[in-house]
Amino acid sequence: MAKNDTTLYLYELAWILPSVALPVGMLAALLVTAFGAHIHLPGQAATLDPAHIDTTSPFDQPGLVEVGVGRYEARIIAGIWFFNPPEIRVPEGSEVTFVGTSRDVIHGLFLPDADVNVMLIPGQVTRITTRFPKAGEYTFICHEYCGLAHHTMAGKVIVEPLE
Amino acid sequence: MAPVVDTDLGAERRLTGAFFLVAFVALFVGVVTGLFQGLSHAGVDLYSWLTPLVKSYYHGLSLHGVMNVLVWTTFFICGFVPFMAARAYQRPLASRALGWATFGLMVVGLLIAGIPLLQNNATVMFTFYPPMKAHWAFYVGLTLVVVGTWLVTLNLVLTHRAWRRQHPKARTPLPAMMALVTFIMWTIASLGLAAEMLVLLIPWSLGWVQGVNPLLARTLFWFTGHPIVYFWLLPVYLSWYTLVPRQAGGRLFSDPMARASFLLFLLLSTPVGFHHQYTDPGIEQGWKLVHTFFTFAVFFPSLLTFFNVVASLEIGARARGGKGLIAWFGKLPWGDPSLAAQVLAMLTFTFGGIGGLINASHSMNLLVHNTTYIVGHFHLTVGTAVTLSFMGITYWLVPVLVGRGLWSRRLALTQAWLWTVGMALFSYALHSLGLQGMPRRTWIAMATYTQPEWGELTPLIGIGGAIMFVSAMLYFLNLLLTWLASQEPAPIPVEFADAVSGPEAAPVFLDRLRPWLVLSAIFIFVAYAPTLIHMILETSANVSGFRVW
Predict the structure, then answer these.
(1) Considering CB atoms only, which of B213, B437, B447 is closest to A112?
(2) Could you say which of A44, A158, B341, B345 has the lowest number of CB atoms within 10 Å?
(3) How far, in Å, CA of A56 to CA of A49, rounded?
(4) Which of residues 86-145 of A touch B (CB under 8 A)?
(5) Catalytic annotation on B226?
(6) Which residues pair with A79 in a beta bridge?
(7) Structural domains for chain B
(8) Tens of pLDDT along B47-74?
């Protein structure tokens, strides 16, 4: 019986140790991507009163603003069932920071081909930066259910080739 | 463990049967609406025929989600778990009257919430994020259902105390300990949802206050929204740990390890909600990483469960003549539909678990958040690991409850395999399409931005969904005929499995809940308090409601 017990403990231990190692290893990999590869998530950017969105900077003037050489800010307001502006144009190689919010219900901003995947929540400002190294059309869609015509809510980033 | 004299638990049986009846109705509604969605993705539109009942794709989707993910699971669990606890304690529930009052309250809650849902006045999905505003009855009804689950906890705690008075030295029977941990964990976790409902959504939907803070509501929702998956899973584990080893012809490998994993779930299930909010503004990345840490910590008890359950299956299969490193798997009693369904659920869950790690990784989550990948994932977990296991449990338990044998074993086996195959196709398609950028909760058939390559996989959603629909109909048919027409003799209830390493080997600290509860409270406080306080003080985010469907 005693021998049997020892074998059991050894089996348990032989499983427990790798079961600890595995999640720890994965966490380490995640920390490397967070701090090493600079994969960032949205954080606390700013808040605003959605009732006064049209008079609150920077959403009083939605659209594209150049903030540096090759660097742009795209100020986007989501509302049922449109993005304002629905289309932006930037040159190839640009770095674009999306600054977004919602005027009504929760929406999403999803550019599958440019690694942008964020929520737009009324009262909160979402900031996320990405790059467009290649020319082409990038569709952005609302990927949070926002009502009857949710499936029609989309826009476009047109990345123009450099001369 | 001596066999339970089940005749003593006649009242518990009737109560369990009542909960199951409601659960089955919910599953039926959920499965039918699910078929419409699957077919819609495959290009077959049934909604135009359904308009008198189902007003839109999104109405159908809300019905599907609420009925399957909230009602089917909750009512099944509230029927199943207390009955198992009563059997394990070998005594009736502390208060049968409280049991029936609980059932009554939950049914009333379901009806109150169900009416606006059916009438298209609560087409807000099972996440009901404000400022999308449903009819107040939807929130009030769901809250009553949650309060009902707390009464189940109360009854379990009272039963445990009564048992403890008579057995001051004994170890809590493993199934009873698991039942207790499941409901205590859930009661703690559901405080987020309760606060969201009582403080924010109900006063706002009744017009008592003007606005709501959408981010705060969403955060409180996910406080409960992730641990709810453990509320679904732990009853499944109760079956996998304490019944399946017996059904496989063997014993549980390690009782102390099983207890340890449940206590770790009690400890770690709740401080993980931000992993549903990686893409949300208003929560600092550092706190999101803390929740990542806890999420990966929960992976540890999951791995313990995996090992313990598979080792127990192996003991059973080897006792039946199984040989080899892997080949013993074929020697499991695959002809028993209850066991087959649950082993298939375990196999499917392996993939669901791996997918869950991807979702919990904040970097990879950016690729899959709110895409159909997530839908593929949770149909493997709650849709199969949980649902197919519950189906497997009913294959022995419903015959016990109605006192007649299962109408057809073969039909039940066919049903379990069909579900697995249908789900494999369906879930493969959704995972792949999600990686190709298809959003979830979207009427894809009418979307203005569909990609041509999506068309290669969308038919699989319809085919897989249709196979699962047929499987579900066979399930209901079999249960109905068992109840009404079966000539088979009543089966002997499955007994709880003995353990190779039994409860006496477990250290005493594995049979004390209080220290674990204190630690759990500390973890939750650390993980949530700073962010929640910041959000509550954020007064500008006060938004009125919208009806957008």
Answers:
(1) B437
(2) A158
(3) 8
(4) 104-106, 108, 110, 112-113, 115, 117-127, 139, 141-145
(5) yes
(6) A82
(7) 9-537 (1.20.210.10)
(8) 888 888 999 999 999 999 999 999 999 9
| Residue B241, amino acid | Y
DSSP secondary structure string for all residues of B326-340: SGGGGGS-TT-HHHH
User: Cα separation of B103 and B148, whole Å?
Assistant: 7
Q: Which CATH number, 1.10.3210.10, 2.60.120.230, 3.20.20.70, 2.60.40.420, labels domain A46-160?
A: 2.60.40.420
Residue keyed to tokens 């068309």: B455
Is pLDDT of A5 > 90? no
Closest chain A CA to residue B57: A148
CB contact under 8 A, B281 and A49: no
pLDDT, tens only, B68-96:
999 999 999 999 999 999 999 999 999 99
- Is the pLDDT at A122 greater than 50, yes or no? yes
User: DSSP readout, B218-264?
Assistant: HHHHHHHHTHHHHHHHHHHHHHHHHTHHHHTTS-EEEHHHHHHHHHH
Nearest to B217 by CA among B123, B115, B134, B116: B134
Residue with tokens 């476009």, as numbered in its chain? A156
* % residues pLDDT > 90 (chain B): 91
pLDDT in the model for residue B542: 83
Helices B96-118 and B73-89 meet at what angle, rounded to 10? 170
Mutate to test the interface with A, among B289, B540, B544, B549 (most CBs of A within 10 A): B540
